[in-house]
């Protein structure tokens, strides 16, 4: 079955005794038992709910995993993964990553005496040189947020396997429509489903898929114990988002390619970071491990005053945090998404006061480019 069809049907046909095409929203906290010792398979919605189960099963199929889990946010999903580990454990993490992940690692996990080593994972030697006897996992984003670095996912998975440690990939930017890390050897894939999977900037969610069912059960125990499972209505919104993810991402990528070409030629732009550009240093790796380049672009302008001008003058494109929705959004990472990261790290990565991040929506590319043109003036 083609990937576009799988997404529309959530990886499996929905069968209902009523004939309902849409999966129902089981808006209930608890479930009645037929009699003592018998159950419908559902007891309490913190543990499992039919609507959430449908989403989780669908995501597992779409990521080629053995199990899927849905959480209240992307950060709740990441937190559940790191609840697997113990005090004294060490982790190798890509140095360019979402500021919320960095804040969680440094402010929460560090209090558990867990150590995080930040390296440029696009250079595999950086990973190999930092593995110690206490290293328990490698965590990557690919492409990274916001500098769009691309890591060889299969190579990282092999390094992890060779060293007996877990490999984790944040797949928020590309989703399983364009990239499936478990098929490339990763143990765990996580994403903020708030973004492209939800696709409409109207709800929060996080998703995990795992290669090994035993690992899935461990995370499910954490999900149930701390109560971080996604609510029924939000699960339904995510299921709805999955149905249109393919057509949205194709249109958003098409727009992103045209906008990145426009930005490359603009006299006020110094640098453009987009994996779909042939000039991107990891273009060939992206081609080999992904079926698309996504809709996220970062670009650096020549002067900070240009940043202020653009953010004030954009009309169609909204100046807002987040990404992945049908509406195009522009973000200023250094004061928004990456404010939690120390300046010395941002300086090393190139996240400066002239960098903007653009999440390209499904509007007409002509209109989006016209909006950017007038904003630059």
Structure description:
This protein has 2 domains: 3-240, 3-Layer(aba) Sandwich (Aspartate Aminotransferase, domain 2); 246-376, Aspartate Aminotransferase, domain 1. The protein is 38% helix and 15% strand. The protein contains 13 helices and 12 strands. The protein has helices at 3-8, 50-62, 74-82, 99-108, 124-130, 153-162, 175-178, 213-226, 232-265, 283-289, 304-313, 343-349, 365-376; strands at 67-71, 90-94, 115-119, 135-141, 166-170, 188-192, 206-210, 269-273, 296-301, 318-319, 329-331, 355-359. The protein is globular and about 75 Å long. The chain starts with a helix and ends with a helix.
- The helix/strand order is HHEHEHEHEHEHEEHHEHEHEEHEH
Rounded to an integer in angstroms, the radius of gyration calculated over CA atoms is: 21 Å
| Named CATH topology of the largest domain | Aspartate Aminotransferase, domain 2
Q: Tell me the name of the CATH class of the largest domain.
A: Alpha Beta
Number of strands: 12
First-last Cα distance: 48 Å
CATH superfamily of the largest domain: Type I PLP-dependent aspartate aminotransferase-like (Major domain)
Summarize this structure as a short list of keywords or feature phrases.
single chain; 377 residues; alpha/beta; Aspartate Aminotransferase, domain 2; Aspartate Aminotransferase, domain 1; 2 domains; seven-stranded mixed beta sheet; 13 helices
């Amino acid at each position: 079955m083609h990937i576009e069809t799988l997404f529309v049907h959530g990886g499996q046909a929905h069968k209902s005794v009523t004939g309902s095409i849409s999966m129902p929203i089981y808006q209930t906290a608890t479930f009645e038992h037929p009699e003592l010792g018998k159950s419908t398979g559902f007891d309490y919605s913190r543990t499992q709910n039919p609507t959430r189960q449908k989403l989780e099963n669908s995501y597992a199929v779409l990521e080629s995993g053995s199990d899927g889990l849905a959480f209240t946010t992307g950060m709740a999903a990441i937190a559940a993964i790191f609840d697997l580990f113990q005090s004294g454990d060490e982790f190798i993490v890509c140095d360019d990553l979402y500021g919320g992940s960095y804040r969680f690692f440094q402010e929460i996990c560090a209090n558990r005496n867990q150590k995080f080593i930040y390296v440029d994972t696009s250079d595999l030697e950086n990973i190999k040189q930092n593995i110690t006897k206490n290293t328990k996992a490698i965590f990557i984003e690919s492409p990274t947020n916001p500098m769009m670095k691309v890591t060889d996912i299969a190579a990282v998975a092999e390094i992890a396997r060779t060293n007996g440690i877990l490999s984790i990939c944040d797949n928020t930017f590309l989703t399983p429509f364009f990239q499936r890390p478990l098929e490339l050897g990763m143990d765990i894939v996580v994403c903020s489903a708030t973004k492209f999977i939800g696709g409409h900037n109207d709800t929060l969610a996080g998703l995990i898929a795992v290669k090994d069912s035993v690992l899935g059960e461990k995370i499910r125990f954490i999900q149930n114990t701390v109560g971080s499972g996604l609510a029924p209505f939000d699960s339904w919104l995510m299921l709805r988002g999955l149905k249109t993810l393919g057509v949205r991402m194709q249109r958003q990528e098409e727009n992103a390619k045209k906008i990145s070409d426009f930005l490359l030629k603009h006299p006020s732009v110094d640098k453009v970071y987009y994996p779909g550009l042939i000039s991107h240093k990891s273009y060939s790796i992206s081609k080999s491990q992904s079926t698309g380049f996504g809709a996220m672009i970062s670009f650096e302008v020549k002067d900070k005053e240009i940043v202020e001008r653009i953010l004030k003058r954009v009309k169609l494109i909204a100046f807002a945090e987040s990404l992945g929705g049908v509406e195009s959004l522009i973000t200023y990472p250094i004061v928004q998404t990456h404010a939690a990261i120390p300046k010395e790290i941002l300086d090393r990565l190139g996240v400066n006061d002239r960098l903007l991040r653009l999440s390209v929506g499904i509007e007409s590319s002509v209109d989006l480019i016209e909006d950017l043109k007038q904003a630059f003036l």
